[in-house]
Amino acid sequence: MARRMSASATTDEPVAEPESRVGSHETLPHKLTSSDPSPSIFLWIATLAAVVAVTVALLWQPPSVVDVAKNVSSAQGSYYESDIVNMDPIRFLQPSTSCDDAFHAVRGTLTSVTDAMAASPSLVDQGLVFLMRNGVNEGLYLTWQGSDHCLHALASAAAVALGADQGRVALGVRLLTQHGLPIASAADLNHAGRIAHVLVDFQTWVWPGIAIGHVYHLADGVQLQTVGLTPLVFSVAGFFTNAEAQQIIAEGSPHLKRSRINRGTASVASDRRTSNTAMLPRSNLTMAFQRKSAALARLPSASFASKLQLVRYEAGELYRKHLDTRGTPDALPATYYDLRFEDFAGWADHAAAVLAGQEDDDAVPDKLRRGDTWFPDVTNPAFVHALLTRFVEKQTATNFFQARSEETWSTWIQTELKNGHATTILPRLLAKKGSAYIPALIETWLSALPPALQVTLRPYTPTRRVPVHGITHFYRWVRWLKNQIAVEMAVVPSRARPRGAMYPKLNVAFQLKLATLVLQHVSDEQLVAALGADALTKLKAAVDAKKGGAALLEALHDAINTDAFVRLVVQTWETQVDAPPTLRYDLPAYVKPWRPNRFVTLFLYLSDVAEGGETVFPYSTDRLVTDIDHRGAMDECTAGLAVPPTKLMASLFYVQTPDEEIDLMSRHGGCPPMRGVKWGSNSFMWNADAEESKTLYDV
Length: 699
Prior knowledge:
This is Aste57867_16114 protein. The protein is of the alpha+beta class and 699 residues long. The chain folds into four domains: 111-203, Phosphatidylinositol 3-kinase Catalytic Subunit, Chain A, domain 1 (Ubiquitin-like (UB roll)), CATH 3.10.20.90; 215-328 and 595-696, q2cbj1_9rhob like domain (Jelly Rolls); 341-458, no CATH class; 470-583, no CATH class.
């Protein structure tokens, strides 16, 4: 048996949500009840498969055949004619020449948001605001005199002080309340209790956990309660009804098939996943849940949510630990942006220069003096030994290595240090593991500093070793353009609107259209100068073969002058739609690498389970349920954070970090029911249009 641990809600709550964003539970056109008098679907199924019908009938009570059919058929039509693709535009704060305030961090130390929540009533009198980065639970107090003209400057200063890349800050900043709602004025910030999160560029909102047991009270009686911080997991109550649960089962059950996993480019059955799944067809129900899910996660469009997936686990069926994110979908090499030893050495030189400027400060401890063990110098074996020793200790305790299945690297580091190889270990280690380990190494170093020095040394903008990749530029242009069309809809040409032929999309069909237009309207001379002759020949052949989706991405990768080719693609679109100035794009100097992918998952528990059936996060150090008995062949169910399947509850968990990197700590599994059957439903939410993004993985 399992024992559930109590989780007391934190006493300090964010300000009440000022507007309803979660859709009403009463909007579905077909409510299902156990007393539905219409003929059962099993009477029809039984004529074809009596055995299957009896089995299913023991598990759930369905609605009528007519209800399901009407619900599905009434939702048919063009995807881009529906409101699902509507965007709630991101509006960046605008700089003002009227702001002459200087912003100073008070105390100069990172502080828990719970401290700020307790102090919120007095922040106006003190002339302070408390700002954090996206999805983070600690931040800085900054001085602010309450001017609308200074919101952009305030947000920008806070973002840099909190460690945001200045290149990203230059692309736009926003302030959001603790409930993920936009702050556009000084009055908004005051109404939010002078506590806010700073987001840069097109960052996707992440609900901050605040503390285990913290409860957010949202519209329509929905509650989010934090049950795990790493990975970030919430328990959701009040999000859906029993009638909706039964309707999900009814619409999905006819499509159930043995679950499969992706292996290379193939989808195969595996003993790692023995459940049954079905993607629900497009219907009023699935569209309603797209809207509700996206609103709950504060996504800018319902299109970011996929159609629902139904899952059924019979006794003993399971899904071993896995990630919900998809693999690399495009021609951008996985190693293009890899961090290396040179990047770490560049950071160490920067940190050393900052410390050198504070040599006369008595607050700097001796261990941070030049030549001492904690002074950042990659040529000093004592520094390397001290840093890597602390790194292994800290990351082992947080399951960093375990989540990556890299315990052997931990052992290797310790062995190399023991054998006196501190002078050579870093280049060898970071040649293989730079991207994964360098950010963690820097955080390990910062965490050992006095709090005030952590703030002083956190701001850092690295040297760009490689130019922005063409695919990265392309993805951001599409994101920017979709958002800008939503902002400027009144003046957008009809061809560029969601129903128009040239509405920007991430999918391969739009890429084929773009590639075709580029070849038709740009001279070969210009294309050879941007692409090179071989890449142009390859692009033409692919377009002739109707493979322009893959070919455009490959051309963006192969181009000998990346920026020139991206500009030709962008200008071709602008010419085709007769774009007004507000839809014309300037290539930014820096864009953070980004790919469309699943971002956050909402799992709905449609039934109770007599025993077992937990959702387990084996690498979490948080605990909700303890003393779980052995779950058959799935030993990971006995460790980590286990969320029991409680009917009409849901789990919301993030599979990417607030900076939109895949969170390897989010590996999770579906434990087998030991008694009974588990019904559930996944609402996979992406950081972009889900339907468009999925096509990139089928190229």
